[in-house]
Amino acid sequence: MPSDAELEIYRQQRQGQDKYIYFLLAAVGAAIAFGLNQTKGLPLTASQWPLGVAVACWAGSFIAGCSRLLAVEQTLNLNQGLIRVRRGTHEDLPHPSFIPEASQLMLRNLEIVNGRSVRRAKAQFFLLIVGAAFYIGWHVYEMYLRALT
User: Fold this and answer.
1) Distances in Å between the alpha carbon of 122 and those of 23, 24, 93, 128?
2) Cα 96–chain centre separation
3) Among 104, 112, 20, which residue's Cα sits nearest to residue 71?
């Protein structure tokens, strides 16, 4: 059984991770809105393709962030199930002799879901940054085109 200090550290870590995920989701949402607002009322031109790529990257970041939240929820559910299995109180456990096998299965599932969560976290951040780079590139390119005229 974990100590109160370990539980508090876990709680704080979990809250920090959640805040970070939601911060990135909010940043991506604001970036999409800002990028789309930049072209409001303008005709579609070939020079806007970097902005389109930026918005597509930001949309991918948003999807990765939502998927990451689902993976975090799955991890918490699997952890809760693992605790019940090890106690022998899981509702799907047919007999206590299955505890070692069920524990191993749940641990493998936890590794898979945790790996998915880590990959989504990397994708969420990476796509946010790539989108920002394309947005800046689009903005500089538009400034260049305006300077030519």
Assistant:
1) 15, 12, 36, 10
2) 37
3) 112
* Cβ contacts of 13 within 8 Å, gap of 6 or more: none
> Which residue, 25, 58, 40, is CA-closest to 129?
58
User: From CA 1, how far away is CA 145, in angstroms rounded?
Assistant: 65
- Encode pLDDT of 71-96 as tens digits: 999 999 998 888 888 888 877 777 77
Phi, psi (degrees; rounded to nearest 5) at 75: -60, -45
Residue 88 and residue 130: Cα distance in Å, rounded? 48
Q: How far is CA 26 from the centre of its chain?
A: 12
DSSP-derived secondary structure letter, 139: H
Kindly report the pTM of this predicted structure. 0.86
Burial call 45-84: b when 16+ CB within 10 Å, e when fewer = eeebebbebbbebbebbbebbebbbebbebbeebeebbeb
